[in-house]
Write a structure and sequence with these properties.
The complex is a heterodimer of chains A (about 270) and B (about 500).
Chain A (H helix, E strand, L loop, with lengths): L12 H22 L10 H8 L1 H34 L5 H9 L6 H17 L9 H27 L2 H9 L4 H12 L1 H17 L1 H7 L7 H11 L4 H30 L8
Chain B lengths: L3 E12 L2 E12 L3 E5 L6 H9 L6 E6 L2 E2 L10 E4 L11 H11 L1 E7 L5 E7 L2 H14 L15 H13 L5 E5 L7 H18 L2 E6 L2 H7 L2 E6 L2 E6 L1 H6 L4 H6 L4 E9 L2 E4 L2 E4 L9 E6 L4 E5 L5 E10 L4 E7 L2 E7 L8 E6 L5 E4 L4 E9 L3 E4 L2 E4 L10 E2 L5 E2 L5 E2 L5 E7 L3 E4 L7 E10 L4 E6 L6 E6 L8 E6 L5 E4 L3
Parallel strand pairs in B: 3-10, 3-11, 6-9, 9-10
Antiparallel strand pairs in B: 1-2, 1-4, 4-5, 7-8, 11-12, 13-14, 13-16, 14-15, 16-22, 17-21, 18-19, 18-21, 19-20, 23-24, 23-29, 24-25, 26-27, 27-28, 29-35, 30-34, 31-32, 31-34, 32-33
Helix pairs in contact in B: 2-3, 2-4, 3-4
Classes of the chains: A mainly alpha (about 270), B alpha+beta (about 500).
Chain lengths: ~270, ~500
């Protein structure tokens, strides 16, 4: 009978199956494809092919530049918004928060299309020149799409900060500005870090926004991967997998780095993303 | 006598229309260890927070060394606080927590430059000085080796010590402590009490301590301020407060005590439990009073040899002493003695004159300002009660339409007239069901008075109190209603 006893361990089985099929297996396949040629012989040519083409490195730089800029702008806008919302004693602050995150509920392709229409409208009024500002348009679209994802984690951390820590800081002689930089900001680092993760990761790869708003003039690494997988030649899946793997390693490294930063800042602080 | 360092003048703080602190006047002398003592919700923490600057008073002033600091923000006040839940900074280690205030501090330095001019400028403390002061503070709380430790890895007691070190390192003029030992276990609390007292002696600064623990207050303080309902009940030394409680609330709150109803029957003579006792207090003859006797001040002797005979009906061993219940007539009296008497034994008790504390009855009767509604009803205490309005005018009567006809034949419409209403404590009936009585409220206090309970029922909106003497035990926080017979409502015209 013992063998049939249901233990808590068994609750994990569906999750393990899910992980194997949808996470581990694809990863293994990507690695397999990346290191082989169309004949399934081991090769490093896929990587050489990617790195030796100067255009590719430029795309990589643009992708990360775009993502970094979007992330910075998002945090700069999201932090004050989250701070004000968290501070406000208004009963309506929940509604304001809702207004900020409401766009999240609308399909993001639609949202991006709407931003495009809006920009063209401004173009029509002579305020904004779309054809001159594809890069800027892409950033506007990305910031708009990912702002809710940066407000929410920061807000959640801010409202959980112990009020008495803020009072203690004031009590010890810190004025409101000093209190913010010495206590509130360090204590909200976990929120900022998860906001960074929520924005940085998708913006490096989401080519839909770049395609729609950059009018295909702005190519990011996501486009590159898509082109490879769409090409359908014998080699293209292998090259595409190699690019994906490069991207994965870079993102993993950057997250490891920011995690370390966070750890130094936030001894014994809240959990990592 | 040392000079006054803090003075509170008519301090008021209101939350949602309720005065949490209701006109407090208090001064504290330099170097004193003062404790604000009271049950939760009595306004003691709010008072402390107004001294710290976290709350802005809705009325009154806070003076520091004679200067008005009511509107000064907390970071500009020379006071530091030890918080109830420590409030350490989780992102900083022990050293940085303690050094937090020092790193912000600026001192005015005066020196001569090359041209011989005297220059004064503000500068931060040097790293060396901060180091020295931090280690001195940590030494004071016995945690020298902990500088590099993460505060979240420390035990509750250690965190509390760090919180104290973080406050005293700034050498404040006043140290505020908000129930600092509340989260510690009994043994640790006792140790910390002694250490805090010792620290107070060494530092020589003023301590203002907030607690609901009467024993803690008695052990540590120079002066105790007993508070209830946002009002100061008594200010005095621990001995005064314990031996000479000013009213039944203080007596009930500070230690175990028997509170009995008595009458003054002569010079230095008071009658309670149907016997006359000698006492030292001097009250006018005929006064109705509350008599307070501490359980340890009652001696048990053999039947017939004492001042009052009765029976032991209960006995519980409490470690050092036995806690026994002595019954005489309807009255039960608590006695603590090291010698046990068996339950059922008939004994006699003796109370020395100096151990009988007599005080003015807290509330002799309920008084309200009411309004006459319709013919024969009066509205007060959020309820409408039937009454007899003809008592307002001698020899008057009501006509068929409900108008009052005075002795002189004058016809009066009393609707809307403001009157003073008086109801005796024992003339109010408490009803279990909230909707069955004429007015309803919540029981906020119960004090046992020997042969009856004194219950206070507070109405929800206007917070009017019904003080009721009853034989039955009710539960605090119960929602009940009250009923009063028309003949027990005494009306008086309000003087214009």
């Amino acid at each position: 009978m013992n063998a049939l006893r249901f233990s808590r361990k068994h609750l994990g089985i569906p999750y393990i199956i899910f992980l194997s099929v949808f996470v581990i297996l694809p990863l293994v396949l990507i690695v397999l494809y990346a290191f082989t040629d169309s004949e399934w012989h081991f090769t490093l040519n896929n990587f050489a092919d990617f790195f030796l083409r100067s255009g590719n490195l430029k795309v990589l730089a643009i992708s990360f530049g775009l993502a970094l800029l979007t992330t910075v702008i998002c945090i700069l806008i999201a932090y004050p918004v989250a701070y004000v919302l968290a501070q406000s004693k208004l009963k309506a602050s929940g509604i304001y928060l809702l207004l900020f995150i409401l766009p999240m509920w609308i399909n993001f392709v639609l949202r991006t299309a709407a931003v495009k229409e809006l920009l063209y409208m401004l173009d029509g009024l002579g305020i904004y020149d779309v054809s001159e500002n594809y890069f800027l348009s892409t950033i506007i679209g990305m910031v708009y799409d990912y702002l809710p994802f940066s407000i929410l984690p920061i807000y959640t951390v801010l409202i959980k900060i112990d009020k008495s820590a803020i009072e203690a800081s004031m009590d010890l002689g810190a004025n409101p500005v000093q209190t913010f930089f010495r206590t509130t900001l360090p204590l909200s680092m976990p929120g900022i870090m998860s906001a960074v993760t929520m924005v940085f990761l998708p913006t490096t790869t989401t080519y839909v926004i770049a395609d729609t708003l950059g009018n295909s003039k702005v190519t990011i690494i996501g486009n590159l991967i898509k082109t490879q997988f769409d090409a359908g030649t014998a080699e293209s899946w292998h090259v595409g997998s190699a690019i994906s793997l490069v991207l994965l390693v870079i993102i993993f490294a950057s997250m490891l780095f920011s995690g370390k930063l966070n750890e130094n800042d936030q001894k014994g602080g809240a959990s990592k993303w | 006598m040392a000079e006054k360092i803090i003075e509170l003048k008519n301090l008021v703080k209101t939350y949602d229309g309720t005065n949490v602190v209701d006109g407090i006047n208090l001064y504290i002398r330099k170097g004193e260890f003062v404790t604000l003592l009271g049950p939760s919700g009595c306004g003691k923490t709010t008072t402390l927070r107004m001294i710290a600057g976290f709350e802005t008073p809705d009325g009154g002033e806070v003076l520091l060394n004679g200067k008005n600091i009511t509107d000064l923000p907390p970071y500009l006040r020379p006071v530091n606080t030890v918080f109830q839940r420590y409030a350490l900074f989780p992102h900083l280690n022990v050293y940085d927590n303690v050094a937090y205030g020092l790193k912000l501090k600026t001192v005015t330095a005066t020196y001569e430059n090359k041209n011989g001019e005297t220059i004064t400028k503000k500068q931060r403390l040097s790293k060396k000085e901060i180091d020295e002061r931090v280690s001195k503070a940590l030494k004071m709380v016995d945690l020298e080796e902990f500088e590099k430790r993460d505060v979240t890895t420390l035990s509750g007691g250690q965190q509390q010590r760090i919180a104290i070190a973080r406050a005293i390192v700034n050498e404040p003029e006043i140290l505020l402590l908000d129930e600092p030992l509340g989260a510690l276990d009994l043994k640790m609390r006792k140790d910390m009490q002694i250490e805090l007292k010792e620290m107070h002696r060494k530092l020589g600064i003023t301590f203002i301590y907030v607690t609901h623990d009467q024993e803690e207050a008695l052990t540590m303080s120079d002066t105790i301020v007993v508070m209830n309902d946002g009002v100061i009940q008594q200010i005095g030394t621990p001995k005064d407060i314990y031996n000479e409680p000013k009213n039944a609330f203080v007596a009930d709150f500070i230690g175990e005590s028997n509170i009995l109803s008595g009458t003054i029957v002569g010079k230095n003579k008071v009658r309670f439990i149907n016997k006359d006792f000698d006492m030292v207090d001097d009250f006018p003859e005929g006064d109705k009073v509350d008599v307070v006797v501490r359980p340890e001040d009652i001696f048990i002797v053999s039947k017939g040899l004492g001042q009052a005979d009765g029976k032991i009906i209960d006995s519980v061993f409490k470690g050092v002493h036995y806690e026994m219940t002595f019954k005489i007539g309807k009255t039960e009296i608590l006695i603590q003695d090291t010698v046990e008497r068996t339950v059922g034994e008939e004994v006699s008790i003796i109370i020395k004159p100096e151990d009988i504390h007599v005080m003015e009855k807290a509330v002799a009767s309920n008084t309200y300002i009411g309004t006459i509604t319709k013919r024969n009803t009066v509205e007060f205490g959020e309820g409408e009660f039937e009454c007899d309005v003809t008592t307002l005018y001698p020899n008057s009567h009501l006509d068929e339409e409900g108008y009052l006809i005075t002795e002189q034949g004058e016809k009066l419409d009393l609707t809307g007239t403001d009157v003073l209403v008086e109801v005796a404590l024992d003339k109010i009936e408490i009803i279990d069901n909230e909707d069955d009585g004429d007015a309803s409220g919540e029981i906020i206090s119960i004090i046992y008075k020997g042969d009856h309970y004194q219950v206070i029922i507070r109405t929800p909106e206007e917070e009017e109190d019904f003080v009721v003497d009853t034989d039955y035990l009710w539960n605090e926080n119960d929602k009940v209603s009250v009923k009063i017979k028309p003949e027990d409502i005494k009306l008086k015209l309000k003087e214009k």
